[in-house]
Amino acid sequence: MSNATQHTRMIPYPVIEAAVHGETDAVNEVIRHYSGYIATLCRRTGRDENGNYCTYVDEELRRRLETKLIISILGFDLN
Q1: Whole-angstrom Cα distance, residue 75 to residue 21?
Q2: pLDDT by residue (tens digit) across 20-50?
Q3: Taking the model in full, what pTM does it have?
Q4: What's the first-to-final CA gap in the chain, in angstroms?
Q5: How far is CA 70 from CA 6, 9, 30, 48, 53, in A?
Q6: How many Cβ atoms from other residues are within 10 Å of residue 31's Cβ?
Q7: Which residue, among 30, 28, 24, 25, has the nearest Cα to 11 in the 3D structure?
Q8: How far apart are CA 70 and CA 31, in angstroms?
Q9: Domain limits of the chain?
């Protein structure tokens, strides 16, 4: 799958519906779909032990964003 195709792939409606109803596998699929975007939002630049700049994913922020996504999924109105 090319990058262009990968970025335009949408989550199928039955998966969204199942996630809204609390099915664990469907919620995990939605999180997996957005995991790259979440990781991009959580990138931080810091210094390593040698003083060199490095980029890393802030794991605490990533977990917080995933939690907010789960709360939003479960509160989503399909009507």
Answers
A1: 9
A2: 999 999 999 999 999 999 999 999 999 989 9
A3: 0.79
A4: 33
A5: 22, 20, 9, 33, 33
A6: 16
A7: 30
A8: 8
A9: 3-74
